[in-house]
């Protein structure tokens, strides 16, 4: 995949994938006016071809695509490396939202949606996906080694394939061990939102456990605190 130089001054390269030309045109127009370089695709195969030719910085991906649906497109995109994905769904069913998050989407927006809100979501995810200034050095605990500036994480020496939000969640836990956080607090601190669907936090915690726990069904690092939320407890892991 061709990748833009890291010092590119232009806005991010965003791939919009939607079979509804009206929706695609509106989303593209708003993102273009926000300063981003936008490409469009009307179905899954075209989206994968465009992503292979020019790796996007973020993908806005409709769930209900003809033939190859958005879930499969998301899986295949992530097979070629991490790329932030915001899923669009015309249905409000929680199962659809959870499925999108489970396959690696960083966020979702339910149709009908405000284009301005979508632009804000895009910029929020992009902001967190970009390398941060090296201010606090490496984070280490329980066999985990995380470099926030490089956005790299390993567990017992093996590289972890984390989405943008999973990485941010892990960094937050490493920086704040031993305290129980409500899902509302995690959404505010990690996602930067004062409101939203709390199942987003639940799914991301579950996915993160699958990558950092010896036995995700019996988590020892990211513990559930019933009636409160979650607590990172590195004392039960290896240093």
TrEMBL record:
Positions carrying 4-aspartylphosphate: 62
MF GO annotations: phosphorelay response regulator activity; transcription cis-regulatory region binding
Keywords carried by this UniProt record: DNA-binding, Phosphoprotein, Transcription, Transcription regulation, Two-component regulatory system
Residue ranges the record marks as coiled coil: none
GO terms of biological process kind: regulation of DNA-templated transcription
Keyword DNA-binding attributed: yes
Residue span(s) of domain Response regulatory: 13-126
SMART domains listed in its UniProt record: REC, Trans_reg_C
GO cellular component, one term: cytosol
Pfam families xref list: Response_reg, Trans_reg_C
SUPFAM superfamilies named among the record's database cross-references: CheY-like
DNA-binding stretch(es), residue numbering of this chain: 136-234
InterPro entries (UniProt xref): CheY-like_superfamily (IPR011006), OmpR/PhoB-type_DNA-bd (IPR001867), Sig_transdc_resp-reg_receiver (IPR001789), WalR-like (IPR039420), WH-like_DNA-bd_sf (IPR036388)
Residues annotated as domain OmpR/PhoB-type: 136-234
Protein name: DNA-binding response OmpR family regulator
Species name: Streptomyces griseomycini
Taxonomy of the source species: Bacteria, Bacillati, Actinomycetota, Actinomycetes, Kitasatosporales
